[in-house]
UniProtKB/TrEMBL annotation:
<feature type="transmembrane region" description="Helical">
    <location>
        <begin position="42"/>
        <end position="65"/>
    </location>
</feature>
<feature type="transmembrane region" description="Helical">
    <location>
        <begin position="12"/>
        <end position="36"/>
    </location>
</feature>
<feature type="transmembrane region" description="Helical">
    <location>
        <begin position="168"/>
        <end position="189"/>
    </location>
</feature>
<keyword id="KW-0812">Transmembrane</keyword>
<dbReference type="InterPro" id="IPR011701">
    <property type="entry name" value="MFS"/>
</dbReference>
<keyword id="KW-0472">Membrane</keyword>
<keyword id="KW-1133">Transmembrane helix</keyword>
<feature type="domain" description="Major facilitator superfamily (MFS) profile">
    <location>
        <begin position="9"/>
        <end position="394"/>
    </location>
</feature>
<feature type="transmembrane region" description="Helical">
    <location>
        <begin position="252"/>
        <end position="273"/>
    </location>
</feature>
<feature type="transmembrane region" description="Helical">
    <location>
        <begin position="365"/>
        <end position="386"/>
    </location>
</feature>
<dbReference type="InterPro" id="IPR020846">
    <property type="entry name" value="MFS_dom"/>
</dbReference>
<dbReference type="GO" id="GO:0005886">
    <property type="term" value="C:plasma membrane"/>
</dbReference>
<feature type="transmembrane region" description="Helical">
    <location>
        <begin position="77"/>
        <end position="95"/>
    </location>
</feature>
<dbReference type="InterPro" id="IPR036259">
    <property type="entry name" value="MFS_trans_sf"/>
</dbReference>
<keyword id="KW-1003">Cell membrane</keyword>
<dbReference type="GO" id="GO:0022857">
    <property type="term" value="F:transmembrane transporter activity"/>
</dbReference>
<dbReference type="Pfam" id="PF07690">
    <property type="entry name" value="MFS_1"/>
</dbReference>
Amino acid sequence: MWTLIRHPVFGRLFAAQVVALLGTGLLTVALGLLAFDLAGAAAGAVLGTAYAIKMVAYVGLSPVAGALVSNLPRKPVLIMADLVRAVVALSLPFITEVWQIYLAIFLLQTASATFTPAFQATIPDVLEDEDDYARALSLSRLAYDLENLISPALAGLLLLLISYHWLFGGTVIGFGFSALLIWGTVLPLRQPTTSRPFRARLTRGVRIYLATPRLRGLLALTLTAAAASAFVIVNTVVVVRSGFGGTDGDVAIALAAFGGGSMIAALALPALLKRLSDRPVMMTGAALLTALMALQAFVTATWPMFLLFWALTGLGYSATLTPQGRLLRRSAHAEDRQSVFTAQFALSHVCWLVTYPLAGNAMTAWGMAPTMGILAAVGAIGLLAATRLWPEGDPVVVTHSHDDLPDDHPHLAGGGHRHAHPLVIDDEHHAWPTHG
């Protein structure tokens, strides 16, 4: 897996992702402490609202941004988005009011709504081999885990020497280095695409996504993952500081436990996915998350038990979501890949749009146990929906009929109206066949 880092293009993109996420990890810790300073015990509600605003930007703006930049070269799009994020992050140390947090988060995540789908869609073009791409997804998951492991540990060390306000400077540096690394990378040229009107570009990815059974199942599993991760992200600072009477360093340790569990899963997944298909691995991860949330609704954890729960939650979270790139790649032609990645980015964040404010406001109103019970119910709904929406087997090659196409249509050449091939939703396949 680590040999991919020596790849001349992927290695630079991976490095750009790592430094940007290190900066984002410092932002997560600093933002939680800033919210606690401004709102005290109500910090969970503030962070819940802030992350809900983040989700609104992701859900509402990522399809629009994706359609606007779909025909532009990816390199300048990625660089400009990084630079905008750096400028916004530069303003964060000067925030003195809660509403300013909300405004900064909206601007920051608007740029991320442009950057992230374009970045994710670039990796399959760089690594065409399926095994290499699976390893790249695990490396990408590990990079995200650095946000939950190394960044909090680094933040804990820095907090011994400086005020948390200075941690925002690390975010600026991370985005700046990311832009610099991308600027020095030769990215593959876009595949030629069919010229489509803006409205078609805006909705194409969502249409492909919602018409594909495995992707509908992915969306349901994302709801389960969002229920578990929302509590971790929004309420860790409240549980540790108010519940356990811990320090800022203890908050970093708790977040590192979550990241450590996720990292263990990411390291194990490339080998595991050679023996098992994506569906059982992702279903098992979602079942673990649901069981952990239900258990914590009834068990009052000690500090060591709490850290174990957080580590297991990280493991289940990574097992549920890390393989998603394989499903997206399998479900679209190269020319539609960015549209489908953008659709996943927008639709999946609808889940966090629900769970972030739910986790924050329920924690403020009722405490940890009832909140975990509510989120466990949400997670169970996602898991049960996935079992119905994503049938077992999930073949790549599907036998189907084209009664709507004329006999001389190029797609029928050599196969006739009824044939079999790797199926994705496209101009010739508007719906997934349910019979035959």
